[in-house]
Each structure stands twice: as C-alpha cells, then as structure tokens.
Amino acid sequence: MKNKTSFLPREGEAQPSRCPDNSAFKQQRLPAWKPQLTIASVLSSFFLTGAFCLAVGVCLVVSANSVREIQVDYSDKCSDCSKLRENSSNWNKECHCSVNFTLKEDILGDVFMYYGLQNFYQNHRRYVISRSDAQLLGRNVNIQRSYCTPFSTYRNGTPMAPCGAIANSMFNDTIDLFYSRNSSVVQVPLLKTGNSWWTDKNVKFRNPESYNLSSAFAGTARPPYWQKPAYLLDEEDERNNGYVNDDFIIWMRVSAFATFRNLYRRLRRVRHFAEGLPAGNYTFRISYNFPVTRFKGRKHVILSTVVWSGGSNPFLGIAYLVSGTAATLTGFVITGIHLKLRKKKTYFQKQ
Amino acid sequence: LPSFTGEIRCEAPNNKLDKFTGTLTLRGEKYALDNEKMLLRGCTIRNTEWCFGLVIYAGPDTKLMQNSGKTTFKRTSIDRLMNVLVLVIFAFLALMCLILAIGNGIWEHDKGYYFQVYLPWAEGVNSASYSGFLMFWSYVIILNTVVPISLYVSVEIIRLGNSFYIDWDRKMYYPLNDTPAQARTTTLNEELGQIKYIFSDKTGTLTQNIMCFNKCSINGKSYGDVYDMSGQRIEVNENTEKVDFSYNPLADPKFAFYDHSLVEAVKLNDVPTHRFFRLLSLCHTVMPEEKKEGNLVYQAQSPDEGALVTAARNFGFVFRARTPETITVVEMGETKIYKLLTILDFNNVRKRMSVIVRSPEGDLTLYCKGADTILYELLHPSCNFLKGETTEHLNEFAGEGLRTLVVAYKSLEEDYFQDWIRRHHEASTALEGREEKLSELYEEIEKDLMLLGATAIEDKLQDGVPQTIETLAKANIKIWVLTGDKQETAMNIGYSCNLLNDDMEDVFIIEGSTSDDVLNELRNARKKMKPDSFLDSDEVNIQFEKSSKNEIIIPDEQANGVYGLVITGHSLAYALEGNLELELVRTACMCKVVICCRVTPLQKAQVVELVKKYKKAVTLAIGDGANDVSMIKTAHIGVGISGQEGMQAVLSSDFSFAQFRYLQRLLLVHGRWSYIRMCKFLKYFFYKNFAFTLVHFWYGFFSGFSAQTVYDEWFITLYNLVYTSLPVLGMSLFDQDVDDRWSMLFPQLYVPGQQNLYFNKVVFIKCMLQGIYSSLILFFIPYGAMYNTMRSDGKAIADYQSFALMAQTCLLIVVSVQIGLDTSYWTVVNQFFIWGSLSVYFAITFTMYSDGMYLIFTASFPFIGTARNTLSQPNVWLAIFLSITLCVLPVVGFRFLKAQLKPTPSDKVLLKIKEAKKWPPPPSPKRRLRRTSTRRSGYAFSHQHGFGALIMSGRNMRPKSPFATTGTFSPNSDKYKHKGL
C-alpha cells in the first residue's frame, strides 16, 4: 500500500535557501543574565533586609514617639448641641460649646489643628463621584449631567453651587482655640490658608470669572445644608473665598477611609506662640453645626506636631520592626538548615 | 476515448483497502471489477508509459482518505485545565460578590440608612436588601478582572512565538533537501513538553527506506568490514575510502562499498565470488529500465532486491535486460544471455525464491536465495563446514541489525529437469490444488543445494535514530512502533535502532489467531512482568472494580524488569476488541517498547486512541506516509516527516521536519521550554490578577461595600494591557532554566512535564493563596501607614486619591519584582520590558495626573496632582518598600527552602548542572552503541508475493531489445591494472 516516489530536490540555484537565519534571537541564544537562588544571595537578602527594616523601624518608632498630639472628642461634650442638631428644623439656630484642656508642657514647633471624623463614609462610591469637577473649575456646565444628583438642582431649577453630596455635606463647625494666660484669655492665632495642596488651590479649583464673586455665583443657590452661599465662605480674604476656599478644598479631597482627619488650621507662630504652644489651660470654642449623631459618627479636634515621617501613627514603625525581626530570624533559620544539610551531605560523602 | 460510454456500479466508499466489488457495463457487456483492477490513491505505476483509467472515488471518498480518520480539533491539556480553572474562578467571583453583597445589605441596614442625611440612597433603591442585590452586580463588574480574559490572547501569543522558534531552529533544518522544521499548528506547543507515548511509523521515519548492500559472506569469507593497517576494525565514516568502481561503466555511482578485498576477489576471477554475484544478478524479479544507454534504472518490488541487484551490477555482473525467456547480464564486460526457464517465486511460507536458468554454455543451474532457517534445511551435506562458517558470519550480521539472506545454487541434470518442467507445467495448469502441487514440486527441486554465502543488507536507519531513541527512553518516553511491515522486518529494525536489545528480560510476541490465544498470551506476559497484578489486592484491580468501565484511567504500573512486546496486526485486531482492550493496555504499557507489525492505517489510529482513552498521558504520533495520517490525526500531537514521501502526512500533522532525530530536539528542548514557559506564565498571570483584584475585596469592608475601587480607573484599564503584559510575555518567550545542550544531556529534566508537575490544580491553588496573601499585604500596609496620619508638612495624607496611588504603585512594583524573581533568563528584551513597564507606569501616571491633562479632559483625569504630592513623601515610599518586602521575601525563602529540603528530581539535576557548569564545557554526548550478537535470524525480506508469474507471462514486457552495443571492459585491462593492485 505504500509506494515510494524518489525525492527530487526541486531546489534551483535561484531559489533562496529556506535555512533559517543564524541570529541569536531566532536560535534562542540571546546573551542573558541568569540569576539563581544561591545560599549567598538568599541569606544576604534576608539579613540585609532584616537589618534595614530594623534600622528604619527604630527610626520610625522614635520619631513617631516624639510627636505631641492632643485629641479631644467633642461629640459627647457638646451633647446639648448635638441634640439640637438632630432636628433639622433647628438648622439656623446657633449653638456653641467649649472644651477645656491643659497643656502640662510646651508644644514646640509647628502645631497643626485637625478635625477628625469617625464613621463618616467619605469613601462610599456614590459619595465619591457626587461632584462636578468642571463646575469647581469655574466652568459654566450643565450639572444635571453630572453625578451630583440628588444635590444638583432645586425643584425650581436653580442649580446648586457647588453641587453634589460631598459639597453639600461639608464640615461646617468652626473651632477657635483660646489660651488662658494669667486669667486673661487670648485667642490663639491660627492660619486658615496654605492648608491644601498647591495643585488643588491653583489648578483644580477656580472661581467662575466675573467682576466680583457674588455676581459670578449669580443664578445659583447654596447647597441645602449650607448656612451661607459659596461666595461668603471667607468674606475677609478674596483668595480664600468661593471654590478656592481652603476648608472647602480640603473637604472636597475625600478621605480613603471612614475615619479620617483633615487639616483645619495651623498655628500662626507670633508673639506668645512663636515657639509653639506654651503650657497652660486652653479652651476650644466650637460653633456646633455639623450633626453626626444620626449615623453614630464622632467628631474630634486634634492638635499635633509633625516629624519627617508624618504624625503619631506608630503602625509603620512597628510593622518595620516586626518585619525586620522576622526577616533576620528567617535568615538564621535558613542558615541553620543549610549548615545541617551540608553536614549531612558531607557525612554521606564520607561513608 | 471521448466516445467511451459505460456504467459502473460499485460499493459505497469504504475504508477496506483489500476489497472492492463492482461491475462495469460497457456496450451491454458486464465486466467484474475487483481489487486487482483497482489502483488506490497514492500508488505509482511503474514500467508503464501510459494507461487508461477511470476515477471511481475521488477526494474524501478514496479508500485512503476513508482510512485516515476524522480530523478533530486538538486542544492541549492545559487548555482543558484552563477552562476548568476559569469556571472555578467564576465560582470564586460569584462567592466574593455574594459576600460583598450581603455585607452591603447589612451595612446599608445598619449604617447607610442613617447616613442618608448626607448620602441619600440612589433613586429606586428603597431597601437595604435591594441595594445589596444591586451591589452584587456592581461587584461582578469591578472584580471581573479576576477572570483572566486577556489570558487567552496572551496564551495564543506565547504559543505563536514558541512555534516560530521551531520554524527558526537551524538545528532542526535539514540542508540536504532544504527543509526547515515547521510548526503547522501553533496551539499545541506546551503539550510537546508532556509527551509520554510516541507512536512511530517505521519506513521513512525510523528508516530511510534505502537498502544498502553492506556485507556479504562468500564461501566462508566475510567481506564488508574495513580494517586499518594493524588489523583493527574501523568505523565507516565519510572519510573512509570508497571502493572505486570506475572500471565498470555501468556501475551505479550512488553505490558505496568500503571493503577493497571483495573487488580484488572479483578481479582475480575467484569462482565462488563470480558465482555469488552471478546469482544475485539472475535470481530476482527486478525490472530494468534503460531509457538512455548506460543509464540503468532498476524497478524492484522490494528495495532489498534492488540493493542486491545493484551490488551485483557494481561488482561487474550487470543485469541489463530481461524478456520473458531470457535475462541479459553483462558479466565483467561480456554480454551473456541466460535462458530463464522458470521462477520459483517467493511467498511467506517458502521464504525463498529460486530461478532456473540455462547459461549460454548450456549449463542448467538453479539459483536460490532465502531465509537462513529455511535454506539451511535444504543444503547438501557436503556444505556442513561452510555452513558453520557462514552461520558465524550471519550471527555477526544479524547482531548489527542487518537483514540477511542466504544464497545457494544447484546444477541440474538435463533429463531430470525436463521431467520436472513437464510436471511443473502440468501442475501449473491443474484446476484443483494447483498451489499445493506446485509447492510440492518446488520442494522437490530445491534440495541438496550448494551453499554459496550470505548477503547482509542494511535497512538504512535515518541518521541518529538509535541515539534519539536512547535519549527519549531516558526521558521516560515510551516508544511504540506501528508498522505495516512484517514481524521479522519490524523486529530487525527494533534491534538495529536499539529499541529492542539483549539487555531486555524478555520480548513477548503476541501472534495468536483467536481471541482466547491473544488473551492468554497477554496474560502470560503480564504474569511474567508483574505477578502481583493478578492478586485481588493489586490497586489497579481494586480500581477496576470500583469504577465503571468507560472512565477507567489505568495508572502507571511498574514491571519487574525491562520488557518488549511485539504484536502482529492480526492479533491486534482481536486485542482491540471490547474486553481485551484493557488487557492489552495494561500489558503493553508495562513494556518499555511495543512493536505492532502488519497493522493497517486504521489500526494505527485505534492503538493511539486506546492509549489516549485509558492512560492519562499525552501521545505523539510520527510518520511520513499517507498511511500514518490517521494516527497523526488521532494522537494529541502529530508529527510529519517531510521530504521523502508525499505530503499527506505533513499536511495533516501539527509539526513537521525532515529527520526523525529532530524529534528529540523538538521534545526535549522546544517542548520542554514551551511547557515551562507556559506554566510559569499561567502561574504568574493568575497570581497577578488575584493580587490585583482582591484588594478591591478587602477595601469593600472599609468602604461600606459600595463597590468603590481601590485604584484609579485608568490604572485598572491599563494594568493588564500596558503595565504588566510585556514583562510576562518576555518571560514566556525567552525564559530558559537550562540551555538546550543541558536539556539534551539530561533527558530526566523532561519528566516533570509528563507528570504535569509545573501547572495543575494544586499549583493553581498555591497561586491563588499567594495572590490572596499579596492582596492582603497590598491593602493593609498602605491602610495602616495612612490611617490617621499626616504628611511631613502637616497636610492630610489619607485621602482617597493618595491611597489609590499608593496601593497601585505598591501593586505594580510587587508584581514587577515577582516577575523578576520568576525570570531565570534575563535577556536584553526582558530587562527592557521589566524596567520599561515600570518607567512607563510612572511616566503615564505623572502625565495623567498633570495639570494640562486635567484642564483639557476634566472629567477623565480627576487625580490631578496626586502623584506629585504623594510620591514626594518619605512615609509613602517606606510603606511601598515594606509591602514589597513582605510580598516577595517570603516567596524567596519558601522557594529556596523547598529546593533545599524537598528537592524534586529535576531540582537535583539542576543542581548537578550548576556544579558541572563550574567546569566548562559540557561533555559532548558521544556514545557508541553497544551491539551484542546473540543468535537470532536476521532474515528479512520486505515483499510479500513475488511477481515472478508476471514476468514469466511476459504480459508487461515491452518488446524492446537491450542496447546491443556495450562498452566492453575488463578488470584486467591495462588501463585499470595499477588501480586494482
């Protein structure tokens, strides 16, 4: 059933040879670096990493410990106000409360004041998208088409400026700090600008163009929860008003987690406070406008210094110490196993 | 011819090669058509200038195509596994989404409901459970990256690349007929690294189908070996001086012979030598063709005969022409015309053929050639001494795997012959019992023969076949030879290419002709190989009882030694039937080598199908002819040998090349690399997608299960497409754990592929766990580092965009380091891809987060400034570094310790290679094959029934006189004298 035909080489002189090129790529002979897991490389990686992690860990822990931080939870201390705010019909009633604390030692250096919120889900997907970046750039856009709903327009069609759930829920407590010095009470000077990212302040947020700010916002209305329109956020400073208000910008940079703190004020280091906050009695005077009790949220006010690694959060330092210890220990274990195996091998070889 | 009108009625197309029935109605007359009148597709008509034919079946209806089985779409086992895994991943996805959806329901009920002051529920959502239901689908969208859609595309690209390497490999290029290797299917590469069974054709695959007159024994003297000055036998190679046949103008220039003493014997007019070659030039059924004077072409039914006649031709006994009654031979330049009186033809029982000729001098002689076992019985007692010597030579020849024939002659008495020929005529015209009568007559005259000597023909193996087979055997690959040849031929080749050898405990021969015989033979074989396998306690038997018959997978069983199995096609037909199947598979798979002879193309396919069905193993079929098409199509991988015979095999194959020996490179180098690359790719791919996606899952617990993504949406889009695709492609196109020389030198490295060790369900689970671990690190380290802290300038850091940037930077660096760890062969391209991807990530990130992009596409790039503000912070980088350390260092330690404490066999080999690399260069694999010569018949003759009858009838003889003028030549002429001495 098999009939062979003799093979006739049909290759003519003109026909190019079908022999593949002799290139290193085609022959899979590209020069290459061939790293391998040797005992030397493994042990050095473990010990070096271990040592590095331990060193960094120690530095981080030391510097985090040097941070001075005072945190005051005022959601319960102002219980009267919080009850008042539970009823939304009281929105225009003012409510003030004070919280006292004592500094035993001076806090030297730059001091920052933060407000902290707990259980406030700024990272909820629908919350995060509920804004109109174009509007915040001062552009005249139809916010109906943005994700601002239900905080985009009023029933009569007046658009909200700024629109969206983020802007609407802006933190609007005002916190002032007073220092009791020799029975006289001095208000601690605080800076309210320069707290946000440069890019946010100068690129991402712009007021609509007009001869003055209130006319720029003409035809729009404040968000429902706001007590005053956007162009009145800071009446004293034109460059901190409207959309480029620092408090507003900071609030609009939504947090990644439900518990977060935002920079509120910085200590202006003048006169008594040139070195920082001197020891003594202080009072936070809070204008309580922001209701949190409904969703079991909590509000804090925090005073803190900073170091190169940030704040007082010890997590990174401890994580580094633990990892460094683990890496070093593993390095020793590997050394032990390797020595034992080698002994066994030579033992067998002797036999 | 155009006026030809007739009608043919015949059977429907079928696959029976040996049967055909039909009738031709022509001008009212009916002619029977049977198989004798059929030419099957692929046949070559010889000695025929022209003929009329009628096409009966064409295309797919031809018997050949009917035999070739159906084409199935081939998929690799990794493909199938991948499909399963994708289903598993879908289930996993559904589970994750369900958990998150329930979480969302609870969260909306407990917290979200009260948080509505600031964030009212979306329109249409009025209950927590409905919100949970919606969130399920949101999470399906977000987490769908865990289902690797781009996986399939990447897999195909990798396979394509690895196929190109096969096309490009110069070491698989055959310069003689300008044939490079060719990957005709680009989807089966990694399967090449998992082959466990090779089914090989013999003719044209293992052998070249070229017969070479290699040695002979004449009158007790052996010719053919070459000795050097000191009398040491030397190996024949290209440099060995060939015998010069230039004294003979009719010599075939392609014929090569190295022993000069034989020519001298011829030139010295040694009588037995002359008689020997005269016999070879007379006793055959070869047809000569001399279209141009001096350009003789022999048409032989079997290449063996052709080789013998060609040898005689070169030594000066040129078979020139034949008519029904005469044979023209040019003997040492002298044209002699012998009268051909009768041909006693070859058949399988006789195993010999004879001719009776009358020489020009008038002597009557019977020349006979045949199998030694048969012919030795017929010799004259006076030859006993010579018989002993010849036997020794025969043993030697057979030990080298040569095909031997014994030749003998007998002078006949005129009277006796006349009487015999009369009876022969009567017998051949007898109506009843013609066959028996004839064979009786043949027996009568073929006795008391005088032994002349023996011939040894080499069925030329392709280059490097024994070495290849040895290497493949070391790689734990089992080789089955499926051939249409006879048992003797097949076994002969088995010995000569080292498949069978005398180190084997036993070679079982299954040739039973009933179902029971075959069963018994198989059982006996198994009993010998593994007596325990008949006990009830044998695990395979236990497994048989448990499972139903259709889904049995027979595990590998270990025999107590090395065995071979030879089974004939006839027995195979029984063995392939229902209940014997299992028995055959169990027995055959225990043997190291299985040879199936006289099998039909369909049976070849059935054997492959059988192993595929009962063994969880990858099979490869290799062949060159149309009769191998069915098995090439059936096996997981079909390889076609191109160049020698037609294109059918190549056209239906998945890979093709010109020489059998390239198979070892295809499997051990390309296959192994493809497999390892594919496995590494899959492992890494699943890992990177799990690590990527599961971070969203963890974030769900902290973001009110609101389907908030961790990363920037651009990052999600570009992650698989831009940031991580090239490094892994680079790895899976360039990676080599050891280079080609080492993988050929240590075929054991192939074994993990067969056992499917590098990628299976367990490995997948491990990848998944590693991915989960990494995602935990990647989420919780940035979370811990950012929680309630601030930047070094006092501004808040824990905003969503900074966190997203930090998490995605951590992730990208971690997966890049991981690919670096997986890459064991860093070419320039790999370096470029890995470093390039990282740089591209930073470049794209900074670009997308730039002022300009924001001002132009405000809605698309809200992350403005994040990169500048966040990546300048030391604690961000410290957190990134810690994530990398925690993700990668455990992997390093685990891999190192695993190789130290629980080294796999291939780890050990790799270690050995590492040691050996210190002393370059690796020893070149030069082994000499050991031959042992035990007594066995090396007889082989590849044709079945001779066509002596055809010659005698003179039916296809063209009345063409041989060229009358021939250049006379004599070895003793002055011209050649000095050369001969």
Automatic annotation (TrEMBL), chain A:
Q: Where in the cell is it found?
A: Membrane
* GO BP, sorted A to Z: phospholipid translocation
Region of interest: Disordered = 1-21
Q: Which UniProt keywords apply?
A: Glycoprotein, Membrane, Transmembrane, Transmembrane helix
For this protein, the parts annotated as crossing the membrane are 37-64, 318-341
Q: Which GO terms describe its cellular component?
A: endoplasmic reticulum; Golgi apparatus; plasma membrane
Main subcellular location? membrane
InterPro entries in the record: CDC50/LEM3_fam
Q: Which domain of life is it from?
A: Eukaryota
Protein family membership: Belongs to the CDC50/LEM3 family.
Name assigned to this protein: Cell cycle control protein 50C
Q: Which organism is it from?
A: Erythrocercus mccallii
Name the lineage. Answer: Eukaryota, Metazoa, Chordata, Craniata, Vertebrata
In the UniProt record, the gene name given for this protein reads Tmem30c
UniProtKB/TrEMBL annotation, chain B:
Write out the residues that bind Mg(2+): 201, 203, 624, 628
Q: What residues does ATP bind to?
A: 201-203, 305, 346, 369, 403, 483-485, 598, 604, 627-628
State its Enzyme Commission number(s).
7.6.2.1
Q: Which reaction does it catalyse?
A: ATP + H2O + phospholipidSide 1 = ADP + phosphate + phospholipidSide 2
Cofactor(s) needed: Mg(2+)
Say which domain of life the source belongs to: Eukaryota
Q: Name one Pfam family in it.
A: PhoLip_ATPase_C
Q: Which is a GO BP term held by this UniProt record?
A: Golgi organization
Q: Where are the transmembrane segments?
A: 84-107, 127-153, 684-702, 714-734, 763-783, 803-821, 833-856, 876-897
How does it sit in the bilayer? Multi-pass membrane protein
Molecular-function GO terms, alphabetical: ATP binding; ATP hydrolysis activity; ATPase-coupled intramembrane lipid transporter activity; magnesium ion binding
User: Translocase: present as a keyword of the record?
Assistant: yes
Region (Disordered), start-end ranges? 917-937, 959-981
- GO annotation, cellular component aspect: plasma membrane; trans-Golgi network
Q: Where is the composition biased (Basic residues)?
A: 925-934
Q: Where is the signal peptide?
A: none
Annotated P-type ATPase C-terminal domain ranges read 650-904
Keyword field: ATP-binding, Magnesium, Membrane, Metal-binding, Nucleotide-binding, Translocase, Transmembrane, Transmembrane helix
Polar residues: compositionally biased ranges: 963-973
Q: Where in the cell is it found?
A: Membrane
Q: Which NCBIfam families match?
A: ATPase-Plipid, ATPase_P-type
Instruction: Tell me what this protein is called.
Output: Phospholipid-transporting ATPase
